[in-house]
Design goal:
Order of helices and strands: EHEEHEHHEHEEHEEEHEEHEEHH
Structural class: alpha/beta
Distance between the termini: 33 Å
Radius of gyration: 19 Å
Number of strands: 14
Helix content: 25-40%
Number of domains: 2
Number of helices: 10
Low-confidence stretches: none
Bound molecules: uridine-5'-diphosphate
CATH superfamily of the largest domain: NAD(P)-binding Rossmann-like Domain
CATH topology of the largest domain: Rossmann fold
């Protein structure tokens, strides 16, 4: 049995590959290398440079490698970019996923795990951690493109022998605690990555987008989950499907929020570097506060997070920034 990881040369995908290897799984990585890096694929893992929208190629790969489950990460992930270029998101996240789902059905792959997002909720109508049965009202093409894929998976599963887990990520951050992979994306926009780059002297300053929100310190609040805990949620999801589970949708987060200013304080404290921070206007599409109710994942799949610690998230991300300097020099 082989697990196919799409986007396996990217940030979360490359952590998933290590999680699977740690559990002695056989893995095939498919990535088009638009944002991923071939060097992040561990030696010994089959790597195929391909686009997941290329349905005949994907059908050939699924059959050739005897794939029993697909863990689907490949896609575009930047909310502000999705507002400027929505069709890119509907192509990469929705259209291409449609072809991959059909490839799975045509080749008899019965297990599908999909990387979705808290952005499917839009702005919560209630305060506090948000549960899976909340209204789905995405406020960006990114969120809509992921929600459309959730619906395709649900409908395809009702009509075919395809079982699925949909995981809605809150803010994924940090890097592999053994230093084997990390977040390497150039031109990063995500908060902890940006702050760690500033702390590592890779950028002269960073901006805080909005300090006039209706929150305690005026900046946005997010639920940051360590990437090692997140990929472990996928591993328990894989076992759920292999043990006969049929359909499951759950939030991935710690149910605890930190503000943007809290995060920057943590990065300054852990790095010991008081980098320059400039407060600017709100960023389009940002939701003031978003935290996960993750009871469903904890109780139904018995997922137990091990790294619910902002300083640990930050220190692992800082370590990776240092390591990237040596990787880039030798690449
Ligand atoms: N943010 C910020 N400065 C940055 C990057 C992000 O102030 O350089 C804020 C952003 O406005 C949002 C929060 O950090 O309120 C999380 O943004 P991110 O892009 O990391 O993830 P998102 O929640 O949009 O998926």
């Amino acid at each position: 049995m082989t697990v196919m990881v799409t986007g396996g040369a990217g940030y979360i995908g490359s952590h998933m590959v290590w999680e699977l290897l740690d559990h002695n799984e056989k893995v095939v990585v498919v990535d088009n290398l638009v944002t991923g890096f071939e060097w992040s694929v561990p030696s010994g893992v089959t790597f195929v440079k391909a686009d997941i929208g290329d349905q005949s190629k994907m059908e050939a790969l699924l059959s050739e490698h005897n794939v029993d489950a697909i863990i689907h990460f490949a896609g575009s992930v930047v909310v502000p970019e999705s507002l400027e270029d929505p069709l890119k998101y509907y192509r990469n996240n929705t259209g291409n996923s449609r072809n991959l789902i059909e490839a799975a059905i045509n080749t008899g792959v019965k297990r599908f795990i999909f990387s979705s997002t808290a952005a499917v909720y839009g702005e919560p109508l209630t305060t506090g951690p948000i549960a899976e049965n909340a209204i789905l009202n995405p406020m960006s093409p990114y969120g809509t493109s992921k929600l459309m894929t959730e619906l395709m998976i649900r409908d395809a599963s009702a009509a075919h022998d395809l079982h699925y887990v949909i995981l809605r990520y809150f803010n994924v951050a940090g890097c592999d605690l053994e230093g084997r992979t990390g977040q390497s994306t150039a031109g990063a926009t995500h908060l902890i990555k940006v702050a760690c780059e500033a702390a590592a002297g890779k950028r002269p300053m960073m901006k805080v987008f909005g300090t006039d929100y209706d929150t305690e310190d005026g900046s946005c609040i997010r639920d940051f989950i360590h990437v090692n805990d997140l990929v472990n949620a996928h591993y328990v999801a894989l076992n759920f499907l292999r043990n006969g589970g049929q359909k499951f949708t759950a939030n991935c987060g710690y149910s605890r929020g930190y503000s943007v200013l809290d995060v920057i304080k943590a990065v300054k404290r852990v790095s010991g570097n008081d980098f320059r921070v400039v407060k600017t206007d709100r960023r389009a599409g940002d939701i003031p506060a978003l935290t996960a109710n993750s009871n469903r994942l904890r109780t139904r799949l018995e997922w137990e997070p091990k790294h619910d610690d902002l300083d640990l998230i930050v220190s692992s991300a800082l370590e990776w920034e240092k390591k990237l300097l040596t990787i880039r020099k030798s690449a």
